[in-house]
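Example (one chain per record):
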Amino acid sequence: MSFMRMAGLLGGAAILMASPAAFATVNMGELVFSGEIEANTCQIDVSDGGHEITLPDVSRLVFQSAGDTAGATPITINLINCLYVDKGRGVKAAFVADAAGDPALERLENQAQDGATDIQVELLDLDGVTPLRIGAADSTQYVTISGSGTAVLKYQARYYALSAAVTAGPVEASATYELVYQ
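Predicted structure:
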């Protein structure tokens, strides 16, 4: 084989190897994505009227120091028609303070006009002991969705004193929640 012919073949091979098409077939791949957008996975059963939580009347004298609590009251959120979620998966509520909340202390501010002072509302997880972190989806425990497509989320609310100087007056607080699925 002549030198010129050899150089021509080597040069052609070098050009072919340097072309983008040569690299594309070796260094590229394809990702294919698929999924499904579902309707609401569970419905909140509002037929029991359980979204108006009335804390008991408590004397201001119960609160002797900061951190004192009183008036623990159960909260029940009934979920129905969990048709689009595999039965046996978990669901929980993630709470967010409405209007005024204390993210540093993770309790709900008293929003009542001319209301009690130095008092907040604290939410507790289903164990009735662990305070919920308002605004943190990881602060509550999952509850298993039953085979019939229902679940019951149980929490508690209670008064929480910021100091021993709690004054008398109404207390009003609110929180929004969204359902989070496991």
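Caption: Residues 3-18 form the longest helix (16 residues).
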